C-alpha cells in the first residue's frame, strides 16, 4: 500500500545536497534514502515521513531495514508520542526533523541522536538533587519523580516569543502539565502568557526558576 507521504525521500534528498557536509543523497524508494557525508565512511540509510503525530505504528511502517539509522519527519513541531520514543530507543534509530538530521550529520551520530534542548533538559533534571527519575511522556513533556514531594509533569515550550496562544496551543497539542518551562534561553515570557498559564492552572518558569521550584 502506497503511503500518503511517498514524495518525501526525493524532497529530503533535494534539501540535503545543499548541506556542505553532504557528498551525495539518493532515494532508494519513496520513503528511504541513502546519504554519503564527509568524515562518515559508510552510506547512511534514512527513512523519511511527513506525519503529525508520530506514533509507534508510523515508525514500524517505515522501519523496514535494520540498517536504517535515522527517521526524518518533514512536519514541523510534530508531536512524538511516548510509544514512538520508546520504540526508536529500543531499535536504536534517531528521530527528528530536517534540522535534527543536519545536526546528526555534523555530530556523526545518527542512532543515538537527541536534540540539544532535550539533552540539556534531561541532563539538568537528572542531576538535580531532589529528582529520583525522569520519564519522557512525549517529545515536549517530562515527568519527574522527586525524592521529596509529589511527581511533577513539565512541558517544555521553545518559543522565542511565548504568547498566550503559544501556551494554550502547547497544552492542547502536548497535553496537560503542572509546569510550563520556557526552554528557549532568550525567551522573555509576556504578561499575557503568564496570565494564560495561570488561567489554565499551570505555572510558567524559566530554567533557573524551575530548578528552584523542584525543591519545594
How much of the sequence is in beta strands?
A: 25-35%
Order of helices and strands: HEEEHEHEHHEEEHEHEH
**What strand line-up does the widest sheet have?**
1-2-3-4-5
Largest sheet: 5 strands, mixed
Number of domains: 2
Report the structural category.
alpha/beta
Overall morphology: elongated
How many β-strands, per DSSP?
A: 10
What are the low-pLDDT stretches, counting only 5+ consecutive residues below 50?
none
Radius of gyration: 19 Å
Distance linking N and C termini: 53 Å
Mean pLDDT: 97
Give the helix proportion (percent range).
25-40%
Task: Specify the number of helices.
Answer: 8
Give a written overview of the molecule.
The chain is α/β, with parallel strands linked by helices and 216 residues long. It has 2 domains: 8-107, no CATH class; 116-213. The protein has 8 helices and 10 strands. The chain has helices at 8-16, 56-62, 82-90, 98-107, 116-126, 164-174, 191-199, 207-213; strands spanning 22-29, 32-37, 40-49, 68-73, 94-96, 131-136, 141-146, 152-157, 179-182, 203-205. Strands 1-2-3-4-5 form a 5-stranded mixed sheet, with helices on both faces. It has a 5-stranded mixed sheet with strand order 6-7-8-9-10, sandwiched between helices. Helix 6 (164-174) runs parallel beside helix 7 (191-199). The protein starts with 7 loop residues before the first helix and ends with a helix. The relative contact order is 0.09.
